[in-house]
């Protein structure tokens, strides 16, 4: 799949710090210590609707990590998928009468436009589920001893992985509840365990399907990401990322698929909070979405949207409102005024402060507060505004140019 163009990253003096991240699997912060190349897999969209601010907040969080790693001197191998074949996509296509492939292509293109607008660094590998079907089939064959048949559908036995449950750290009751809510089928007769997920679904009338050694069909959701990550990053890779609604079942199941064939998956599992609107989590099912493309077409500046979302720590749930956007716009104007001044306060201290805050579990509110302090402090250094502008751009992704 075609990725969007990467924004320029202005050079900064010195080198950034090792990044400490909160790992869901250990329920504690840990310093991720990549080799020369840091590796990250962030779960992508199911393209049946436009990108909303919940998506944007997640991808901005991992964009900060990408930027912090690069600033610390690492190369970054970043892989993202697109779930361009799945039940929600087919259901939306049936509702609207649109061809499922045309729908997926259109919404994927819209997503790439939104990410470019928000100045998110693109992945190195941007892989659709459909193009990954040969990889998925190969992985299922390797998982043969953990897979069984139910009326032509293939299921993965979660109990074949002794580490199952170690990613999200949930109780059996919690896992059963969430599995039912998030696309699972715990009550299907014939399954060995209610939590077992489908890895290959036999062909249904009127649905797209692909040939395989198991018969015509299409892949399950979780195995898709496992196959793509293992192929393009290898295991273990440094960070598996996504919204916190993916910790279970998606990341739990994806990790278990890898465990039974390779013994490992990600080193750290990092999850972003949800964005709410009108007191509810922003979601398609509730119909309370704020679309990035709508803000884009209304002429809102991308820097303001980015600044508004970074004002809350990535792991925290937050509310979106016009007030949040207005506050970000006002903040940005204060920064612009300071950056346009002929001289300013020592920006090397700002650089150190922003690096320190991002190294501490991507503390974007702390980083923004450091810029606020710099912008409010008088100074006589003629080079400070230029350096501050580069810090804000390279590390926070916010361009102060109008």
Summarize the entry for a quick read.
This protein is α/β, with parallel strands linked by helices and 402 residues long. The protein has helices at residues 53-71, 87-96, 100-117, 133-142, 172-181, 221-232, 247-262, 292-297, 302-310, 322-340, 347-359, 364-376, 384-396; strands at residues 19-23, 28-32, 37-42, 75-82, 125-128, 147-150, 153-156, 198-202, 217-219, 237-243, 266-272, 275-277, 280-281, 318-319. It folds into two domains: 19-277, HUPs (Rossmann fold), CATH 3.40.50.620; 321-396, Anticodon-binding domain of a subclass of class I aminoacyl-tRNA synthetases (Four Helix Bundle (Hemerythrin (Met), subunit A)).
Query: How would you write the strand order of the largest sheet?
Result: 5-4-3-10-11
Tally of helical runs: 13
Query: What would you say the CATH architecture of the largest domain is?
Result: 3-Layer(aba) Sandwich
Number of strands: 14
Per CATH, the class of the largest domain reads Alpha Beta
Strand content: 15-25%
The share of residues in helices is 40-55%
* Multimeric status of the protein: single chain
What count of domains describes the coordinates? 2
Structural class: alpha/beta
Distance between the termini: 31 Å
Low-confidence stretches: none
Largest sheet: 5 strands, parallel
What's the CATH topology label of the largest domain?
A: Rossmann fold
What would you call the shape?
globular
N to C succession of SSEs: EEEHEHHEHEEHEEHEHEEEHHEHHHH
């Amino acid at each position: 799949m075609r990725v969007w163009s990467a924004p320029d990253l202005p050079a900064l003096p010195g080198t950034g710090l090792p990044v400490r991240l909160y790992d869901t699997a250990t329920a504690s912060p840990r310093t991720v210590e990549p080799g020369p190349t840091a590796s990250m897999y962030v779960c992508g969209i199911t393209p049946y609707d436009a990108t909303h601010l919940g998506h944007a907040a997640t991808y901005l969080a991992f964009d900060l990590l990408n930027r912090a790693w690069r600033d610390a001197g690492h190369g970054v191998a970043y892989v993202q998928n697109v779930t361009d074949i799945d039940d929600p996509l087919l259901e939306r296509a049936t509702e609207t009468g649109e061809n499922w492939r045309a729908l997926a292509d259109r919404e994927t293109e819209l997503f790439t436009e939104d990410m470019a607008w928000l100045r998110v660094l693109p992945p190195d590998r941007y892989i659709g589920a459909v193009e990954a079907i040969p990889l998925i089939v190969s992985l299922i064959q390797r998982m043969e001893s953990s897979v069984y048949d139910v009326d032509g559908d293939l299921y993965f036995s979660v109990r074949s992985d002794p580490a199952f449950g170690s990613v999200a750290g949930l109780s059996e009751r919690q896992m059963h509840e969430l599995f039912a809510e998030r696309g699972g089928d715990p009550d299907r007769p014939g399954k060995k365990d209610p939590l077992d997920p489908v890895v290959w679904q036999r062909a249904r009338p009127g649905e797209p399907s692909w040939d395989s050694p198991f018969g015509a069909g299409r892949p399950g959701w979780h195995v898709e990401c496992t196959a793509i990550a293992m192929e393009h990053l290898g295991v273990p890779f440094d960070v598996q990322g996504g919204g916190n609604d993916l910790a279970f079942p998606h990341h739990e199941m994806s990790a278990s698929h890898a465990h039974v064939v390779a013994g490992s998956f990600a080193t750290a599992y990092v999850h972003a909070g949800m964005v709410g609107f009108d007191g509810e989590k922003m979601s398609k099912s509730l119909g309370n979405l704020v679309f990035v493309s709508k803000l884009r077409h209304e002429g809102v500046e991308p820097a303001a949207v980015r600044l508004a979302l970074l004002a809350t720590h990535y792991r925290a749930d937050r509310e979106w409102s016009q007030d949040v956007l207005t506050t970000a716009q006002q903040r940005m104007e204060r920064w612009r005024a300071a950056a346009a001044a002929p001289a300013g306060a020592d920006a090397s201290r700002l650089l150190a402060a922003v690096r320190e805050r991002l190294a501490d579990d991507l503390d974007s509110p702390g980083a923004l507060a450091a810029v606020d302090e710099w912008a409010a402090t008088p100074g006589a250094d003629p080079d400070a505004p230029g350096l501050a502008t580069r810090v804000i751009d390279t590390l926070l992704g916010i361009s102060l140019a109008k």
